[in-house]
Amino acid sequence: MQPPPPLPNYQAFEDANHLRYLAIAHYVMGGITGLVSCLPVMHVVMGGMIATGQFPMGPTTPGEPDFKMFGWLFVAMGSIFIIIGWTFAVLLILTGRWLSARKNHTFCFVMACLECASLPLGTVLGVFTILVISRPSVKALFLAGPSENKWTRE
To 5 degrees, how large is the angle CA 113–CA 129–CA 100? Predict the structure, then answer.
């Protein structure tokens, strides 16, 4: 008669669940960030209209300043904010992917720290991520990688 199989390690099961929930939350936060980052598109459009003269800015007399540079400033600033926001959204989604794959612990930690500046949801998610991935048992899961982790549904 064979002995019964060993009981599962409860802490490893909880750590795997916490990492899965954090990964899902990072996917959602990345999607929200990408969506909110689309808001400056209206500044780019309005700046383009000002720069090309399609947006009425009042009568132009020889003594008045030219508003075309103001329009190009709108286009440049809006484009910069869009690029920064989309980049952060992609990095958040990548963090979620790497949390679920148990890779790049340092990258996930740095992104969690950067996420804390995004009030209020990013702060909560960043703090929870820092608390979870700082546990020694979670660090061991990251060192073991996805092949050694038998408690996930991947």
Answer: 120
Query: What residue has token string 């989604």?
Result: 93
Tell me the residue length of the chain.
154
Concatenating the DSSP letter of every residue in 123-142 gives HHHHHHHHHHHTSHHHHHHH
What is the C-alpha separation between 130 and 111, in angstroms, rounded?
A: 9
Count of CA atoms in the C-beta half-sphere (13 A) of 102: 23
Task: Work out the average pLDDT over 55-59.
Answer: 66
For residue 17, the one-letter residue type is N
The answer to whether residue 23 scores a pLDDT higher than 70 is yes
Half-sphere exposure of residue 128, counting CA atoms within 13 Å on the CB side? 16
Among 83, 135, 82, 84, residue whose Cα is nearest residue 108:
135
- Residue 120 carries which side chain, given as an amino acid letter? P
Q: Which pLDDT band, with edges at 50, 70 and 90, does 64 fall under?
A: low
Question: What is the dihedral sign for C-alpha 36, 99, 22, 27?
Answer: positive
CA-to-CA distance for 136 and 91, rounded, in angstroms? Answer: 24
